[in-house]
């Protein structure tokens, strides 16, 4: 896979064009056994890099990620971080939000 990544880099340098960033991810994806760069980025955010655990947790956040083959590493990392944040707050109900608003009002009201 690293030979393919090097070939793509050489083509990019020779032609002055940017090809899809996926070939650059391939060596790391193959080494760690992840099917997408989003899985790899997610593994870097977790305390474990165990492929099975990463995949199980990725299933929870995947619905919040818009996959795009032209994403570079910064975009992939940002999308995974944002999806993890949205997932953390996905179970917050309207009652929870109202209770927090009341709590904040109590803290800011001068007495």
What low-confidence regions span 5 or more consecutive residues with pLDDT below 50? none
* Average residue pLDDT: 82
Gross morphology is elongated
Largest sheet: none
Percent of residues in beta strands: under 5%
- What is the helix tally? 6
Rg, rounded, reads 20 Å
Q: Label the structural class.
A: mainly alpha
Q: Would you list the SSEs in sequence order as H and E?
A: HHHHHH
The counted number of beta strands is: 0
Summarize the structure.
This protein is mainly α and 111 residues long. The protein has helices spanning 2-15, 22-32, 37-45, 51-61, 73-88, 94-108.
Overview of the structural elements:
By secondary structure, this protein is an all-alpha fold. The protein is built from six helices and no strands. Helix 1 packs antiparallel against helix 2 and helix 3 packs across helix 4. The chain is elongated.
Write the layout of secondary structure elements.
Elements: H1 2-15, H2 22-32, H3 37-45, H4 51-61, H5 73-88, H6 94-108
Helix pairs in contact: 1-2, 3-4, 3-5
Notable features of this structure?
mainly alpha, 111 residues, 6 helices
